[in-house]
Each structure stands twice: as C-alpha cells, then as structure tokens.
Design brief:
The chain is mainly alpha-helical. It is built from 5 helices and no strands.
Length: about 150
C-alpha cells in the first residue's frame, strides 16, 4: 500500500523556499547596519573580558589563572587596538587603551617570572608598560628623614 501525497501550489518546494527567510541573510543585513567602531569595540571588550578571567580577576572565578592564555588574549587585544586606532578615534580608543594597560599591569603583577623590558604581553604594540605614581603602593608610615 502506498500513500499518495497531494501537493498544493502553496506547499511546493519552490513556494516553501521563497516563503522561508534565510537566517544568514538576516544576520548579514543586521550586521551591515552596525558601524565598524561598534564591532571593533565589541571584539575588544570580549578579548578584555577573557583576559581578565585568565588573570584571575573575575569575581566568580578568582582562583582561575592561566597566564599563557592571558598573554595571547592581551597580545591580540593590543594588535587589534593598534591596527584600528585610526578608525576608532580618540573618543573610542582611549578607554580601550586604558583597559589594555590595566590588563598588562595585572599580568606583570600576576607573573612570577618577569618579562624582559618591552617583551610583556602586547608591549610590541604599546611599548613598555610601567605603573604610574598614582598606582604605586603608598606607604602608611612616614619614611625616616636623614638629619
């Protein structure tokens, strides 16, 4: 016994294909409307977040630390910011550079084996990173004065 399938014009393969929306074309149309500054900034924020997690800076994973992964992510972030700085402009690039610098300093603090000067993560793009006077430890006792 064989079942016969009736096909109406509305359910023909051609009509079905025309009525379905290709999800990839929808995504392409949506992403075409997003400015490049937002896409670059979003990618940078993802790299920053992942690097922070691998540096043990995440509140929910404070014991997690993988400095090799953090180094790769910081290098990628520095390269992205270096290459895209002209497109981002100062308004968008400055906070991203500040975040990168914070990650680079956190890496130096977390690493038990110091890198050669200028060889830290991302430093081939940013130059050597040093803590500022404001972020150096402050002494609670006055230092002795020589008389």
């Amino acid at each position: 016994m064989s079942d016969q399938v009736s096909t109406s014009p509305a359910t023909t393969p051609t009509a079905e294909a025309e009525s379905r929306v290709d999800p990839l074309s929808t995504v392409s149309r949506d992403i075409a409307e997003v400015p490049s500054v937002e896409i670059i900034s979003t990618a940078a924020l993802h790299l920053m977040s992942a690097a922070a997690v691998h540096l043990g800076l995440a509140e929910d994973l404070p014991e997690h630390r993988d400095l090799d992964e953090a180094r790769s992510l910081i290098d990628a972030l520095a390269g992205l910011l270096d290459a895209s700085a002209p497109s981002l402009g100062h308004h968008h690039a400055a906070p991203l550079r500040d975040g990168l610098r914070s990650l680079q300093l956190a890496f130096k603090e977390a690493s038990t084996i110091p890198d050669e000067p200028g060889a830290g993560p991302g430093e081939k793009y940013t130059g050597e990173v040093h803590p500022t006077a404001a972020s150096r430890p402050q002494y609670t006792k006055p230092l002795p004065v020589a008389e």
